[in-house]
Design a protein that fits this description.
single chain; 368 residues; alpha+beta; 54% helix; rod-shaped
Length: 368
């Protein structure tokens, strides 16, 4: 059980600075998509004068043991073809890794596990608008073999350089081989989900507060429904990264696999538990936003009904002088009030009294 602090220390930021021996001159034959290429033995990086080529890494592993870890960023088909041939990767998995836009999944091809993770980044914004980008997603594919790990990253965020440095700072953990890298990568991605979920909770709380503001402060008019809908769409994007990953992590944590170290496999359960928590949060976010959207639309409907009642009430009041004036505007010859001295003030008084009575009645009933 002493491995738990080591596992968690690897996937979380640390103030410790680890030397980066790979930040040296790049070998001229290394594809430009290769971010780093190294060989690890007994949990320690084999020192080299420059970044290894994938072929040189394979030779080092063949001669001295250990495993190779190659990290790539958005490789082209030509750049990845040589690496795929060197490690015998399946063409279907290679195609998925190059073209990206895959669902999170776990697939086995002969003696290689192919895993797809979605990386999620929360985009900071001063104010939530109808066009705000809240969640930015990327992808990390991981090929895990007996003596190699190949990570392929797509997107401008989700760099794995810090994760590699922290793993290199924990040789006891890295000594468990490629499965330790796969676990740390999964935990790294899921921890990112937790951060995004907490940030989204703040946005939802803000919208909910605006919708249910006390009457007299704008609540009766609701908020812009497009803002709520945009937030709901971003939650859906987040859900697409979280929900499909439940099954792969369940398999990694429960089903025995030859490529996964038994000492590491049990710790996939902790990652799966964290993912389950995020999944519950995302489902709750979706349901809560549905309720908020319905409440906002109901408030808008109530506000429209109130406007119509006020318009109807004033129309009823105005109808009284309109009717009376219409009667006395017919200009019939035999209308005694037309020649009566007090006829004009009497009509005005009657109009005022009737209008006042109607206004008071409507006011008492809450129409005005």
């Amino acid at each position: 059980m002493s491995m738990i602090p080591s596992l968690r220390a690897v996937v979380r930021p640390s103030a410790r600075k680890v030397p980066a021996p790979h930040e040296t001159d790049r070998h001229p034959q290394v594809p430009s998509a290769v971010v780093d290429c190294a060989v690890y033995r007994e949990g320690r990086r084999v020192p080299t004068a420059h970044t290894l080529t994938p072929h040189a890494a394979v030779e080092l592993v063949r001669l001295g043991g250990g495993f190779a870890w190659i990290g790539l960023h958005e490789p082209s088909e030509a750049e990845f073809a040589g690496i795929a041939a060197e490690f015998g990767l399946h063409p279907l998995a290679v195609e998925d890794a190059v073209h990206a836009h895959q669902r999170p999944k776990l697939e086995r091809y002969d003696d290689t596990l192919f895993t797809v993770f979605k990386t999620v980044h929360y985009v900071e914004h001063e104010e939530l608008t109808a066009t705000s980008e809240i969640v930015e997603t990327g992808e990390v594919m991981c090929f895990t073999g007996r003596n190699f790990v190949i990570t392929v990253r797509h997107g401008g965020q989700g760099s794995l350089r810090g994760l590699r440095h922290r793993l290199q700072g924990d040789p006891d953990l890295l000594a468990h081989g490629p499965s330790a890298v796969l676990h740390s990568l999964a935990d790294h991605c899921v921890d990112g989900y937790l951060v995004v979920a907490d940030a989204l909770q703040d946005d939802i709380d803000e919208v909910e507060t605006e919708v249910f503001t006390a009457p007299g402060k704008g609540a009766s008019r609701g908020v812009d429904a497009s803002r709520i809908y945009q937030l709901k769409r971003e939650i859906l994007e987040f859900k697409r990264a979280v929900a499909p990953l439940m099954r792969p992590l369940h398999l990694l944590s429960e089903r025995p696999m030859r490529l996964i170290d038994p000492d590491i496999q049990k710790y996939f359960r902790d990652v799966h538990d964290h993912l389950a928590r995020v999944h519950e949060q995302v489902v709750g976010f979706d349901e809560l936003l549905n309720s908020i959207l319905q409440a906002n639309l109901a408030q808008a409907t109530v506000a429209q009904n109130e406007d119509m009642r006020k318009i109807t009430s004033w129309a009823a009041i105005i109808a009284v002088p309109t009717m009376i004036c219409g009667v006395y505007g017919m200009n019939f010859k035999h209308m005694p009030e037309l020649r009566w001295t007090y006829g004009y003030p009497m009509v005005l008084g009657a109009i005022l009294v009737i209008c006042f009575g109607i206004h008071r009645t409507l006011k008492r009933n809450g129409w005005l």
